[in-house]
Amino acid sequence: MERSDPPSPKRQKTEEEATRYNGCPDDDFDFDSDECSDGEIELFDQEMERSGGGYEIDFKKFRYCFGWRPFHLDDVSFFSDPETNRHFIAKLVNLALDQHNKDNKTSLELGKILIANFHPSCGLTFYLSFEVNDPSDGNQTKPYRAVVRYFPGDIEVVSCNPKES
């Protein structure tokens, strides 16, 4: 539903920030530009490998992120109050955990959401890092990761697995 009233100053600031990459206005990025050097591409590839494929990217290292963005958990940039981005990510993680529990006959529970990154695809693809509590193992906390594709009205869990050490 579209808002007919003007956005609050906080929401307007959040919406403006949601259109930025790494704090740089979109017009500072030209995706067809030669400004993205081979060195930057190599550095980004190394960061993708270090982060295990997009889960925990250090965005401060880059001025060009190839469409990847951090998903700020405590903002309301995608939703109206009172729901925050954190609530939305918790829903995605719980869907992934439900599927994981069903497929693996486990009863893992969401502990804490750590990091959420995303990039545009057909909709948005989220790379989620979080902790689970495992009741079958003395409620021990374990790191997990999930990839979830979101398109309004359609959510697809691509994977949900323990974080590799």
Automatic annotation (TrEMBL):
**InterPro entries reported in the protein's UniProt record:** Cystatin-related_pln, Cystatin_sf
Q: What is this protein called?
A: Cystatin domain-containing protein
Q: Quick one: where's region Disordered?
A: 1-28
